[in-house]
Design the sequence.
C-alpha cells in the first residue's frame, strides 16, 4: 500500500475523507514533468532554487528587480533570467564550492530537457509594444506577437540590447511559478533535510505532500507533508517564515494537522 492510500484509509476510520490539495496537485504535476518525486525534491531544494525564486519579481520594474540587467520583468509579473542571471542567483557555492559556469550548464541542461525550464528570447512587438518571452521552439525570422498576432522581424529592434546578438533567457514552467508563489517548495526542502542521511540505509523513505482532510465535504486541515521511514510516521506543518504569529490558532496548527494517533503504521 502506498503512503497516500494508507493516509486515506486511516482518515476513513475517523470519518474523514482525503483529497489532494492545490499545492499537492502542482507538486505531482511537476514531479511528472521531472520523471519522479526524487528529481522534484532535488531540484526544488538544491542550488537552482534561489534562481527560480528570483524569477518571481518583487517589482513590476526590471531596473528595480534586476539592477544588473540579469533578467527582465514581463507583463503579468513573470521574470526571466539570463544565464549570468541564473549564475548570480543560484546557490552554487553553498552546494558545490568552487563551481563554475560549466557546472551550472550541467545543472540547467537536464531541467531544460525535462521542460521545467525553457530557453528563449525576450522580444518587443513593433505593433503593440508588448515585451514577451518567445521560446526557442517558436523563434523564426518572422515571429508572431503573443498579444496582437502581428508579424515581426527578428532583428535588433525586437531585442534592443545588446546590439551584436540577442541574449538567451530562461523561463520557469508556469506551474512551478505558482508553486513558488504559494511557498509550495518548502515541503520539498524538508523532505531533502529528513531524507539526506537515509537515502542509502535500505529501509525505505516514503513521503506525500499536500493532502487535505475533509469532514462532510469541507476541508478541515491540510497535511503539508507526511513522511514514513523506519516505522516512524511524521506529519509536518511547513511554514515559509521563522516566526509564528502569537495566538491559539498558530500554536494549535501542528496539533490539528497531526490529528488523532494513527494506531498503526503504513506498509509502504
Sequence:
Amino acid at each position: 500500500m502506498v503512503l497516500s492510500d494508507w493516509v486515506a484509509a486511516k482518515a476513513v476510520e475517523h470519518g474523514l475523507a482525503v483529497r489532494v490539495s492545490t499545492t499537492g496537485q502542482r507538486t505531482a504535476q511537476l514531479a511528472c514533468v521531472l520523471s519522479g518525486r526524487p528529481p522534484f525534491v532535488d531540484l526544488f531544494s538544491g542550488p537552482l532554487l534561489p534562481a527560480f525564486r528570483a524569477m518571481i519579481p518583487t517589482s513590476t520594474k526590471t531596473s528595480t528587480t534586476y539592477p544588473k540587467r540579469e533578467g527582465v520583468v514581463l507583463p503579468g509579473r513573470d521574470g526571466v533570467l539570463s544565464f549570468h542571471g541564473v549564475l548570480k542567483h543560484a546557490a552554487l557555492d553553498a552546494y558545490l564550492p568552487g563551481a563554475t559556469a560549466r557546472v551550472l550548464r550541467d545543472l540547467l541542461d537536464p531541467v531544460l530537457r525535462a521542460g521545467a525550464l525553457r530557453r528563449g528570447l525576450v522580444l518587443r512587438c513593433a505593433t503593440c509594444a508588448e515585451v514577451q518571452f518567445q521560446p526557442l521552439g517558436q523563434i523564426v525570422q518572422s515571429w508572431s506577437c503573443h498579444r496582437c498576432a502581428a508579424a515581426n522581424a527578428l532583428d535588433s529592434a525586437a531585442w534592443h540590447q545588446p546590439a551584436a546578438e540577442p541574449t538567451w533567457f530562461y523561463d520557469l514552467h508556469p506551474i512551478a511559478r505558482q508553486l513558488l508563489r504559494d511557498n509550495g517548495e518548502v515541503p520539498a526542502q524538508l523532505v531533502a533535510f529528513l531524507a539526506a542521511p537515509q537515502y542509502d540505509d535500505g529501509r525505505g523513505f516514503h513521503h506525500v505532500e499536500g493532502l487535505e482532510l475533509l469532514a462532510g465535504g469541507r476541508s478541515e486541515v491540510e497535511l503539508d507533508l507526511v513522511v514514513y521511514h523506519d516505522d516512524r510516521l511524521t506529519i509536518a506543518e511547513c511554514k515559509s517564515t521563522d516566526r509564528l504569529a502569537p495566538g491559539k490558532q498558530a500554536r494549535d496548527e501542528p496539533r490539528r494537522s497531526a490529528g488523532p494517533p494513527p494506531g498503526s503504521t503504513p506498509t509502504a
